[in-house]
Amino acid sequence: MKPKLKRRKLKSNFQKSSMDLVQITNNEKAEFRTWWHKKQNLICPLLKIEVPLNNVALDHKHKRKKDPVGPNGDGLIRGVVQLQANALEGKIINSFKRLGLDKFIELPALLRNIADYLENPPIPQKYIHPNEIKKEPVLSRQSFNQLVRLYHKKYPKRKELTYTYSRSKKHKPKPSQKLTKTLKQLYSEFNVKPKFYKG
Q: Which of 91, 97, 177, 183 could potentially form a cystine with 139 if both were Cys, beta carbons 3.0 to 4.6 Å apart?
């Protein structure tokens, strides 16, 4: 059943619009959400799936304080949307504005372009990005030290084994020792299984 919504005298920012607007109060919000959720047949317009009432939000287009309600949908309710989908939609809009992309394109057009791009990328799908190259595992310092102790005990006069770290001006040195051919032979010789850092 459609909720009984009272016509109210609108604030000055409403009066700047010639649209026939209806102000929903906080007391009417829950009833309005329930009503429109049923009008949508319980379907979230973003996910296109049925969503229970306790997992939806009454979505609206946010506006700046100085802007009037109405033009371009500012301040107006758009629909009843699944909670997480509503949160994502808000983040997309905020990021779009924060990154300044609104200078080049309207958001709906960009989203359509993104969908087309993801489904039909312009580059033939056969080139692997350098970031996806399988990296060699890094030998754990603890495992290396175990090998060093066995090595020096058996070969006290041989050259000392040293563990390598990556060097960077911006970051602290990070373990970077790979399992070299020599180390692999030593682990095998001392019958020790090498261990690596995760990730």
A: 177
| DSSP-derived pairing of the beta strands 174-175 and 165-166 | antiparallel
Alpha carbons 71 and 64: distance in angstroms, whole number: 12
Q: Which residues contact 14 (CB under 8 A, 6 or more apart)?
A: 21, 23, 68, 69, 70
Cross-strand partners of 50: 43
With bands split at pLDDT 50, 70 and 90, how would you rate the model's confidence at 6? low
Kindly state the tokens that stand for 81: 């949307």
Domains (range + CATH), the chain: 12-119 (3.40.1800.10), 128-199 (no CATH)
Instruction: In whole angstroms, give the CA distance from residue 144 to residue 195.
Output: 8
Which residues are 80's β-sheet partners? 58
Those residues with Cβ within 8 angstroms of residue 35's Cβ, 6 or more apart along the chain or in another chain: 1, 2, 3
Report the pLDDT averaged over residues 103-113: 96
At 4, the amino acid letter reads: K
pLDDT at 12 over 80: no
Question: To the nearest whole number, what is the mean pLDDT of the chain?
Answer: 87
Place of tokens 């919000």: 29
Strand locations in the chain (E): 56-60, 77-82, 165-166, 174-175
- Ordered DSSP codes for 97-134: HHTTGGGT--HHHHHHHHHHHHHS-SS-TTPPPGGGSP
